[in-house]
Specification:
It contains 16 helices and 13 strands. The chain is an alpha+beta fold.
Length: 384
């Protein structure tokens, strides 16, 4: 909900708005509202994924919790239908990581993100690709994946038949950077598994990627999902660099603020900026939740209590709990025979009211992620 004060700011224009300071809590509530975490939304899965500007989805299934936490009456079968019907796809996109996006955003955004994928590929595999005829390679590789979806291992081996002596992993990664590759079902289908097999986005969707990529529109979509934000925030989310000029060209369509450190924040005039006192219910985030990954300055959500935690550098990425909108604990589900246990480790002392609300939300989470378990148990430990 847009507050009366924010409507006045928008009406006065950018010059007045640029003097307005948004507190950390104000930024928190604005971002939670746009991320559908203040209240579950009555949106279709496809509309929600579009509204969220995609979801990081490099694991097969953990991102389903992100949709469950955001949508009223969420059913994982709805996602399966959209993936198999090719209305949603999973592909390397923002930050060169696997994202779940709509077919339309895949076709529109993949050319914009091309430099990000090429930068990562060149950094890791460029020395193995010196002298490679890119046009001939792309044509041959596209023919292979369009004939039938291939895993990277199989793709690298097939490409090495035509380019003997080349590093097979480098060849597969080069095609990933130079051709839009989507992961095909059953990979990513709830309750199922399958090889990480790829085909081209054009073959899978029956349409060409955009020949006139528009980063301005993508930036506006980012602000709708994550704003207010700095240019550095936009660059962190996308992986792109040198976006200052693109954002400056949009100034007449945006409003600006300052954060408590004096950094300039950009936003859409009519985007929600709730009262900072708006209650925020407990929410369970998944391991790669974009709420935690899409700003250069993550203090609008990440707390010092979280930063003090010690996690295994190469271990599982923690799944976090929001209390009052901020990272206040982590969670994990374990199984033993027919019992599923949710263990919540708070980083802070919880009130009795927070403990009750968190336990009730945890019971609902268990009913979703462990529906087949005969017994569900929620445990909230002492603060760590």
């Amino acid at each position: 909900m847009t507050t009366p004060s924010s409507r006045i700011v928008a009406a006065r224009g950018a010059s007045d708005a640029s003097r307005a300071v948004l507190s950390r809590r104000a930024l928190n509530r604005a971002t939670l509202a746009r991320q559908l975490l203040l209240r579950r939304a009555d949106l279709s899965v496809s509309d929600a994924v579009a509204h969220l500007a995609g979801m990081q989805a490099q694991t097969p299934h953990t991102w389903y919790v992100g949709l469950w936490s955001r949508l009223a009456g969420f059913r994982p079968e709805a996602v399966a239908d959209l993936l198999t019907n090719r209305q949603l796809v999973r592909l390397a996109l923002l930050r060169s990581t696997i994202h779940l996006v709509t077919a339309a955003d895949c076709l529109a955004w993949r050319p914009i993100i091309q430099p990000v994928l090429e930068r990562g590929m060149n950094s890791n595999f460029g020395k193995h690709l010196v002298g490679l005829d890119r046009d001939a390679f792309v044509a041959a590789g596209r023919a292979l994946v369009d004939e039938r979806p291939l895993t990277f291992a199989a793709l690298g081996a097939r490409l090495a038949e035509q380019w003997p002596g080349r590093d097979q992993a480098a060849l597969a990664q080069a095609l990933r950077a130079w051709v839009p590759l989507v992961q095909v079902p059953p990979r990513g289908i709830w309750g199922r598994s399958g090889p990480i097999a790829h085909t081209s986005a054009e073959a899978w969707l029956g349409a060409e990627v955009s020949s006139a990529p528009a980063p301005q529109h993508m930036i506006q979509r980012y602000l709708a999902a994550f704003g207010p934000a700095t240019v550095k925030d936009i660059q962190t989310w996308s992986g792109l660099t040198r976006l200052r000029a693109v954002v400056d060209a949009l100034r007449l369509e945006l409003v600006t603020f300052r954060d408590e450190q004096g950094q300039e924040l950009f936003d859409l005039p009519d985007a929600p900026r709730p009262d900072p006192a708006t209650p925020a219910p407990p929410r369970f985030l998944y391991d790669f939740d974009n709420l935690l990954l899409s700003h250069a300055d993550r203090s609008r959500v990440i707390t010092a209590d979280y930063c003090r935690q010690v996690y295994e550098p190469h271990g599982p990425v923690p799944q976090l709990v929001l209390i009052d909108g901020f990272t206040s604990g982590d969670w994990k589900v374990t199984r033993e025979r027919d019992t599923a246990m949710l263990t919540i480790r708070p980083f802070i002392h919880l009130s009795a009211q927070d403990t009750t609300a968190l336990t009730e939300e945890g019971a609902r989470l268990l009913a979703f992620v462990a529906a087949d378990a005969a017994t569900h148990d929620v445990q909230v430990t002492a603060p760590v």
